[in-house]
């Protein structure tokens, strides 16, 4: 592809490169490289990739009415909510993973529309019983069809309804002893890679989500202080020595990269995605989701949710929800705090 671009046989446009490439990973890498080198103007690589995929995929849907519904839903619901979430999260989520979920969701929606048409029904006449029979029990199918049916009802296109899955955190966390056993392992294993050590301890000690860990930058680290400080929320956190040394090493390495990512990714200018980091932690026996749940439950049991919110940069409502899950009772906190 680089040879073809140099010879002029391949147009120097994102659309031509996406069409020519044989894999999405090649597209993401090459477009990021060309943008980083100022060969192409600034663009959102994952958005361009998704738009290209959507137009090609939509053309494979046979029924024109189904194509219209899917285009409206994608444009005015899926993509709008994705842009809003990315703006609020300030880039902490992985755009590639987000658009992958959108692709999967659209395929589930298309499958439902095809099922309705195959039974010679319409969105307005298809029964709830028929929808219930169509549901397979797949969590991803339900996650896709719940917002789709809600959108259909809002626009008075259908009365179909799929319940959102209830989030059950109980029973998914480590025992406290196991959490500290894992923490001691990450603190004491001198042969462990600094990235793996830092990520594991940030999950185990502070309950950070991997999407936030991979987006940490050098500017959030104060290596001049002892102990080393890391700012995640409104207030900096003093890190244990071993974790502080690992973070300081990552910050020192990041000096050679303009973006300053502590966890740089493969594609130029971008940080690591959560997937590879999760696999690293699993190789060490750490399940990040369960460890994070345990950490947040114990932190909100020990500290007022407001303090947890300030330290970890999570919303006050989220911190309060974790506190309720931990059965914490902080009703006397304002009075106690006011005492000298």
What number is the mean pLDDT?
86
The radius of gyration is 24 Å
Provide the spatial order of strands within the biggest beta sheet: 1-2-3
Name of the CATH superfamily of the largest domain: Intergrase catalytic core
Q: How many β-strands, per DSSP?
A: 3
Shape: flat
Q: How much of the sequence is in beta strands? A: under 5%
Q: How does the major sheet shape up?
A: 3 strands, antiparallel
Continuous helix count: 17
CATH architecture of the largest domain: Orthogonal Bundle
**CATH class (first level) name of the largest domain:** Mainly Alpha
* SSE string: HHHHHHHHHHHEEEHHHHHH
Amino- and carboxy-terminal Cα gap: 70 Å
> Helix content range of the residues, please?
55-70%
Low-confidence stretches: 87-93
Total individual domains = 2
The chain-level structural class is mainly alpha
Which fold name is given in CATH as the topology of the largest domain? hpI Integrase, Chain A
Please give a structural write-up.
- This protein has 340 residues and is mostly helical.
- Strands 1-2-3 form a 3-stranded antiparallel beta sheet, with helices on one face.
- The protein has 17 helices and 3 strands.
- The protein is flat.
- It has 2 domains: 63-166, no CATH class; 176-338, hpI Integrase, Chain A, CATH 1.10.443.
- The model is unreliable at 87-93 (pLDDT under 50).
């Amino acid at each position: 592809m680089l040879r073809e671009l140099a010879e002029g046989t391949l147009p120097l446009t994102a659309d031509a490169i996406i069409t020519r490439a044989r894999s999405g990973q090649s597209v993401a890498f090459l477009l990021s490289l060309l943008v980083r080198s100022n060969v192409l103007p600034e663009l959102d690589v994952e958005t361009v990739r998704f738009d290209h995929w959507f137009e090609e995929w939509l053309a494979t849907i046979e029924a024109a009415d189904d194509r219209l519904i899917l285009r409206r839903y994608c444009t005015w619901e899926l993509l709008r909510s994705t842009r809003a979430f990315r703006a609020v999260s300030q880039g902490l989520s992985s755009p590639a993973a987000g658009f992958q979920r959108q692709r999967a969701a659209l395929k589930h929606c298309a499958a439902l529309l095809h099922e309705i048409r195959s039974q010679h029904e319409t969105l307005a006449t298809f029964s709830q019983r028929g929808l219930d029979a169509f549901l397979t029990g797949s969590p991803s199918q339900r996650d896709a069809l719940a917002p789709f049916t809600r959108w259909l009802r809002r626009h008075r296109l259908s009365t179909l309804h799929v319940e959102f899955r209830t989030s059950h955190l109980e029973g998914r966390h480590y025992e406290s002893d196991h959490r500290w056993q894992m923490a001691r392992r990450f603190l004491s294993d001198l042969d462990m890679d600094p990235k793996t050590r830092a990520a594991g301890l940030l999950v185990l000690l502070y309950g950070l989500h991997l999407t936030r860990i991979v987006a940490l930058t050098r500017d959030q680290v104060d290596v001049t202080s002892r102990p080393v400080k890391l700012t995640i929320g409104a207030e900096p956190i003093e890190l244990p020595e071993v974790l502080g040394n690992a973070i300081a090493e990552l910050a020192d390495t990041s000096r050679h990269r303009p973006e300053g990512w502590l966890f740089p990714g493969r594609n130029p200018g971008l940080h690591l995605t959560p997937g590879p980091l999760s696999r690293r932690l699993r190789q060490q026996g750490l399940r990040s989701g369960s460890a994070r749940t345990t950490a947040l439950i114990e932190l909100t049991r020990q500290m007022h949710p407001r303090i947890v919110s300030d330290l970890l940069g999570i919303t006050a409502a989220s911190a309060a929800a974790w506190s309720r899950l931990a059965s914490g009772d902080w009703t006397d906190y304002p009075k106690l705090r006011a005492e000298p």
